[in-house]
Design goal:
The chain is α/β, with parallel strands linked by helices. It starts with a strand and ends with a helix.
Length: 399
Amino acid sequence: MARIVTKDMARNWRTATRLVRGGTRRSDLGETSEAIYMTSGFRYDDAETAEARFKGQAEGFTYSRLANPTASVFEDRMALLEGADTARATASGMAAVAAALLCQVRAGERVVAGRALFGSCRYILEEVLPRFGVTVELVDPTDPAAWERALSQPTRCVFLESPANPTLEVVDLKRVADLAHAVGAVVVVDNVFATPLLQHPLELGCDVVVYSATKHIDGQGRCLGGCILAGQDFHDQHLNQYLRHTGPSMSPFNAWVLAKGLETLELRVTRHCENAAKVADFLAETKAAGRVRYPGRPDHPQYDLVQKQMGGVGGSVVTFELPGGQARAFEVMNRLQLIDISNNLGDAKSLITHPASTTHQRLTPEQKVELGIGAGMVRLSVGLEDAQDIIEDLEQALR
């Protein structure tokens, strides 16, 4: 007998149960693991049913660019986890960011964003949106006065990351949301570093949350994916038609991988954060590592905000600035035996990258200085290995 777990059924479930059971769509075969519906289209019993589905007068699927049963499992599970009215899956995290912005902004309107962003996000803001007549202003995301000045005039949208990539700056989401709503702006938050478990932007007054599901949600380096979570009004007025006609859709197979990844997300993120805290403490005590940044440490500039907004948990990413610039950073990275050099993060394996020459290489030297991305900075995504093995690998590389 077919069975679909609805939001009403899962309303009283706790997080761990929602991650395993939320959005289940079981077929008549009674499978325990979610099925993969690898199909582009769907058949109808009669022409009248096809017409009704396309008009939205009857439930059911029409085309996998618009909706797919496997993608729906992932979307429903994400919506339950985030506490959102709707969730829409996309082919990648950057597809989610682009759709969340492009679906709502118009020529002549204005976007305000925190300047500490992933390189591709800055490209959309600085290169893509201005081509279509959209004005973009970047501000220091940790400066309340900068947000007040920027949001003292009409604004369509606010976009920010918190914690930011790779500087790990943390933004007061509630304060920004209040300022933005006073001028009618929609607040879009890239929550990938915090994951849906450590920080809840919608509860803090933000309007839209985006994820690269490639990171912790998959968490094992297997596939790409993204997700946009929002209220029903935003979905119906802006997002739905944009996705329908532009087609940045997620493949059913990737949706299945990501839905299975959610089942272990809480277990993995807990271990990630425990390991990252130990690694950050080790690096902070090692003079050879230079300046260490980790939101969970008392020496982080926004530590008090992290306690309030993220429950005091610092996440899975640590950065440190090696004295000696790029040459020293490359030297240490090349000596690592356990930790892999890679630009991904949130993986079961510990990964390290040099932002200035990879993820943020297109920024000018002046922009890098402004953001605090030094030539010696490395970003370490702490994995699920034994923390002591990670520490010993860093120790021998630094020595």
